[in-house]
């Protein structure tokens, strides 16, 4: 639709934007600082070719979207330089975000895929973001009480109004991805399927990869990896659903330096550093390249606000080009802390 930008190799996550997760409103000074941090991060990201921006209604109780909205309002050319995705479907207990007319619903956290909720969430997100459309709407988590057909119907209304470009999912397993994709394909006569699935995935969180090799192996029970992760990547590949990896830097556990690494991460941090030095790329790029080497169209989403780390992460495709399968297996083995079976 309106925005022709393709997804960038690495995406910018904004869960750390908006002055943190406190429920109290920010004062002017805190808002100015939140905008400065976001503006510096976005400038570094764009300059390094990271143009997909990932946010969600719940991040910092709406303030992540608001912060991005302030940047968009201040720069009329910015919207067309980014591919923008937001999420809805989680209502956080006690959050001020939905407090006005649904207090009962948010006493404790719940998920909500209902059509009215999705319509309202998108309207509110667009207002906070100071834009008339997002390129992708992601359903944040499955709501066991709502049929995917209902959520899909709300999405299609929003899409035909030009408010949303495509539909993505997050934190869903094989069964839900299949249900959503079937529902969207049925409603569009096969014209459109789910665009992407965002799940936690990285060198530290390897269920999709482990499940492929631990089938029928005793370790699979302990690691709880085969269940929902088994077959998920293959299903997405078959159906043309791109994978987005959240937590892809492992919150820095392999790139803080071996001294700072936790005991169980030290060996992998050392391997990351050695490969980074030899391939002349950053450690962050090595960590992300481990994902890019997989044959599943994975787009890592990085949550750092540090401009240097964003520039380092943007080297991931170069690192993937230079990394051979020997290095890839060394990283995997070091991260799992045990030889492959
Ligand atoms: N769909 C979902 O349910 C879901 C869930 C979580 C996140 N997400 C999305 O994915 C994005 C990324 O997720 P994430 O933030 O959990 O993962 P991440 O990118 O693995 O971690 C980012 C965090 O790690 C810190 N970090 C990274 N490298 C570091 C280093 N070398 N030294 C010290 N700190 C380091 C960053 O701090 P600095 O900022 O100081 O660098 C930041 O707080 C989020 O922003 C959000 O957009 C989606």
UniProtKB/TrEMBL annotation:
<dbReference type="InterPro" id="IPR023210">
    <property type="entry name" value="NADP_OxRdtase_dom"/>
</dbReference>
<feature type="domain" description="NADP-dependent oxidoreductase">
    <location>
        <begin position="10"/>
        <end position="316"/>
    </location>
</feature>
<protein>
    <submittedName>
        <fullName>Predicted oxidoreductase</fullName>
    </submittedName>
</protein>
<dbReference type="GO" id="GO:0005829">
    <property type="term" value="C:cytosol"/>
</dbReference>
<dbReference type="InterPro" id="IPR036812">
    <property type="entry name" value="NAD(P)_OxRdtase_dom_sf"/>
</dbReference>
<dbReference type="InterPro" id="IPR050523">
    <property type="entry name" value="AKR_Detox_Biosynth"/>
</dbReference>
<dbReference type="Pfam" id="PF00248">
    <property type="entry name" value="Aldo_ket_red"/>
</dbReference>
């Amino acid at each position: 639709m309106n925005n022709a930008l393709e997804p960038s190799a690495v995406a910018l996550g904004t869960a750390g934007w908006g002055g943190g997760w406190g429920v109290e409103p920010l004062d002017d000074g805190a808002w100015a600082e939140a905008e400065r941090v976001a503006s510096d991060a976005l400038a570094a990201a764009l300059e390094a070719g990271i143009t997909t921006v990932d946010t969600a209604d719940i991040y910092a109780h709406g303030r992540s979207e608001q912060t991005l909205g302030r940047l968009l309002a201040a720069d009329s050319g910015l919207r067309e330089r980014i591919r923008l995705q937001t999420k809805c479907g989680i209502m956080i207990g006690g959050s001020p975000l939905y407090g006005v007319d649904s207090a009962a619903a948010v006493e404790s956290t719940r998920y909500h895929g209902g059509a009215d909720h999705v319509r309202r969430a998108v309207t509110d997100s667009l207002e906070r973001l100071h834009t008339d459309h997002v390129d992708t709407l992601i359903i944040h988590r499955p709501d066991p009480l709502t049929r995917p057909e209902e959520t899909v119907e709300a999405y299609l209304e929003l899409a035909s109004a030009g408010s949303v470009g495509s539909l993505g999912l997050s934190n869903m397993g094989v069964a839900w991805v299949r249900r959503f994709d079937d529902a969207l394909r049925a409603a569009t006569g096969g014209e459109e399927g789910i665009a992407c699935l965002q799940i936690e995935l990285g060198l530290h969180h390897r269920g999709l990869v482990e499940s492929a090799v631990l089938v029928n192996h005793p370790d699979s029970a302990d690691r709880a990896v085969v269940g929902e992760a088994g077959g998920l990547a293959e299903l997405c590949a078959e159906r043309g659903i791109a994978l987005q990896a959240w937590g892809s830097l492992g919150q820095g556990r392999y790139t803080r330096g071996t001294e700072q690494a936790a005991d169980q991460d030290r060996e992998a941090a050392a391997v990351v550093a050695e490969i980074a030095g030899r391939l002349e790329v950053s450690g962050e790029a090595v960590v992300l390249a481990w994902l890019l080497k997989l044959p599943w169209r994975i787009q890592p989403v990085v949550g750092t606000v540090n401009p240097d780390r964003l520039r380092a992460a943007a080297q991931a495709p170069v690192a993937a080009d230079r990394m051979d399968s020997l290095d890839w297996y060394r990283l995997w083995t070091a991260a799992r802390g045990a030889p492959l079976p």
